[in-house]
Design goal:
- The protein has three domains: 12-119, no CATH class; 140-197, no CATH class; 200-362, Histidine kinase-like ATPase, C-terminal domain (Heat Shock Protein 90).
- Helix content is 55%, strand content 12%.
- It has helices at 12-35, 41-56, 61-76, 92-139, 141-156, 163-194, 206-220, 241-258, 319-331; strands at 202-205, 226-229, 236-239, 265-272, 278-285, 335-340, 346-353.
- The strands form two sheets. A five-stranded mixed beta sheet has the order 2-4-5-7-6. It has a two-stranded antiparallel sheet with strand order 1-3.
Length: 362
Amino acid sequence: MRNKKRPFRLSAKDLLIAALAIVVACLLCGVLSFFGKSDTHAPLIFILAVLVVSRLTEGYFYGVLTSFAALFSVNFVFTYPYFAFDFTLSGYPLTFCTMLAVSLITSALTTQIKQQEELQIEAEKEKLRSNLLRAISHDLRTPLASIVGASAVLLENEKEMTNEQEHALLEEIRDDASWLIRMVENLLSVTRMAGETVISKQQEALEELIGFTAQKFRKNYPAIPLRVSIPNELIFIHVDVILIGQVLVNLLENAAIHGKSLTEITLSVTLEKTGGKKAVFSIENDGVWIDEEFLPHLFDRYGMWGKEGRKSDGGRGMRIGLSVCAAIIKVHGGEISAENLSTGGVRFRFSLPLDEEAQNAP
């Protein structure tokens, strides 16, 4: 994978960093000179300024520029004779070479680190695409085969089958088709997360998001009671509504599909102010537990629900759905986790930081 060189462009931000570093170094040297007569501290402080600029800016230009600015500042302001240039001072060439070497070495190391980070990001994207292809080939084969088989049975035995048998096969086709639709929605979400598309955030009332999600779930799973609990106050969240809605739908459907003996699902939202104000979403069911050894890896791309890759629903795993959830929450600056409840069942939790300005939105 090649790393393309970017054309050099002056950056106002990097110029500001370089100027600010020189100003701070000058102020610090001025304060130290006021309390002492020695000027030996000045070169060291300006070398530190060169190091900081080289680390925080792009390329070599700003570090080298800071080196020249630091050198002239030390010579003109903080070395006798003061406020006059004297390039014949002892050790002056060594100071210049030291500052220049520091800027070049630091800039080179910083540039290399940033290039490695970019390559690592690209490698992660490629890995995600490869994992998706493997997951697709495995997770889509079963429902597709089931649809083909059920439809073939209906066509070949149309006259011999009873109404009840036809109804059962049609329900099986419907369920498998619904599963495929949800899988495609997940894949589209992952494509957005893995590509270069910037997510589109907007202010959304929490009550409307939860209401729409609950309505969609109750339509698909009318037999499963869903209890909803949200704060009474009007809350706005700054999110990509489609993606966060996909997270809620995925977690609710996972609870319904894998909960087995559950009698109720609870969707609740609370506000926390510890470490910054955030909304905490919780989806709980009172069904079966997740195997403890797989619980920490549930959101990994290779995470499984049961032992040795066994899936509890005849081939419909949670790998893509939960990896999608983790990626979406991460890009929104939140965290996601899962835990088994002592009373039985599983709780999925994820948090989203709240924008204080958003809470004052009309």
